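Appendix B. One record, verbatim.
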Amino acid sequence: MQNHQKATGDSGHPVSRTLQGLFGLANETERKVAQALGLNLTDYRALTVLADSGPVTVGVLASDLGATAATTTALVSRLEAHGYVERLRSTEDRRQVHVNVTTTASRRIKDLMRPLLSAANAHLDGLPADHQVVVGDFLDAVLDLMQDHLQSLSAEDAR
């Protein structure tokens, strides 16, 4: 967080500084979860994209990741070797193969994240109901702002 402040020269609102710290800790948590799973960060991020999307072809996953099909195929092979994804032949078109997250991967990720999520839920449950609503509304707004910012960055990349 302090490095970002130094780089941007922006001290901002105290809540914005807290958000910067949260983003940094989220990145570090992501690295540690990937490490605990025996994955590099790129493979872990692909696993989370796949977990969110459900079964997709390698081509669709490559598009979602902004990677080539060849890179994604190698990535899927590494995840498959760990037992985190499986390739499933389509019942409609046997030539088409979908990639899906295994229950083992889902369970391991949930086990790694459960302590944090349980503590956050307990903290939220301890807040008065009106505070819970305010926190939820604020976090929803931040998610929307982040999605908008990501889209604007993607649009700049496309130029």
